[in-house]
């Protein structure tokens, strides 16, 4: 009898142990909250700012170009839901100097109060074959996409932990879940965010601070149009196997996941598949999420093999085409 009771107790403990990481965090209330969006003057960042503003948040936009910042501020202010709301603009390069970033975050906190949510969205992409990319491009992308997310996060984390409130969002990319032709510089800078986010989440969870990594697909923004100009043919053909998303849709999903404290945020069926495939040892925030990952892993890996095969054949076709046009050039 005693043995049975003990066995029950052990089983119960084990169950608690397994379920405890699955307890969902309390959603963050956006009305009146202070949301800082780096890269908030354009594209996905601007749409995230609008989405938060529509839900009653106070916004700080961080980017370099002052004209673009003011333009975005005007656009965002059209969506106000009460006359207390403020959009603050701060011009700074997030990738250069930590002290500078810390100072502007302090200024923003003096004006609009402690930061409740930080969205690290400033970033850029340059595509090209490994040997064609300048070495300085690797440095620039790592500085902006990785360190440009470390600096603002480092500047807000202490206050968030003290207040036991906070959300930090890292905007990675689907190219931060798998490496693709042409993205040796970009993918690595976006993969880095995942490592940062996993380690940070483990540190700050006991303080009720939650981290979200977003993996947007190709999204119709000024930044995407810029990147498109640098893509090798292979990269363009591979990215054309999926459709292009609206920044409003991506922003909506990111804000929703950040409020809920979900570790992953993705859009569309490709996004769903990639997130399940690459979940690794990432934290889970609900039982259904964990179960979905366990159940879908094998199936998605099988589908992924077909994708990889089709990418290989695109690359082979491009090589053959180039070889043919070269011999045609020689004979002409
Ligand atoms: N669009 C896509 O297809 C796609 C897909 C996956 C992931 N993403 C990621 O999503 C994020 C936003 O992309 P997007 O396409 O919306 O970009 P975007 O339209 O080019 O906007 C980039 C924003 O970042 C700011 N910024 C750039 N460099 C900065 C710096 N050094 N310091 C401070 N601010 C800086 C820009 O303003 P200033 O130039 O004035 O500084 C602008 O506000 C990026 O991290 C990108 O890698 C985009
Ligand atoms: C990308 O650039 C190519 C030309 O290099 C063009 O044909 C295509 O329409 C562009 N796509 C987008 C979405 O801008
Ligand atoms: C990732 O997040 C999306 C919503 O952004 C959700 O639909 C999906 O189930 C999540 N995937 C995993 C593997 O957690």
From TrEMBL:
Signal sequence extent: 1-21
Enzymatic reactions: sphinganine + NADP(+) = 3-oxosphinganine + NADPH + H(+)
GO cellular component: endoplasmic reticulum membrane
Subcellular location: Endoplasmic reticulum
Highest taxon above the source species: Eukaryota
Enzyme class, first EC level, given as a word: oxidoreductase
Pfam families cross-referenced by the UniProt entry: adh_short
Coiled-coil residue windows: 62-111
GO molecular function, one term: nucleotide binding
The protein's annotated pathway: Sphingolipid metabolism; Lipid metabolism; sphingolipid metabolism
Keywords: Coiled coil, Endoplasmic reticulum, Lipid metabolism, NADP, Nucleotide-binding, Oxidoreductase, Signal, Sphingolipid metabolism
Keyword Repeat: no
Keyword Endoplasmic reticulum: yes
Family annotation (PANTHER family): 3-KETODIHYDROSPHINGOSINE REDUCTASE (PTHR43550:SF3)
Function as written in the Swiss-Prot or TrEMBL entry: Catalyzes the reduction of 3'-oxosphinganine (3-ketodihydrosphingosine/KDS) to sphinganine (dihydrosphingosine/DHS), the second step of de novo sphingolipid biosynthesis.
Assigned protein family: Belongs to the short-chain dehydrogenases/reductases (SDR) family.
Protein name per Swiss-Prot or TrEMBL: 3-ketodihydrosphingosine reductase
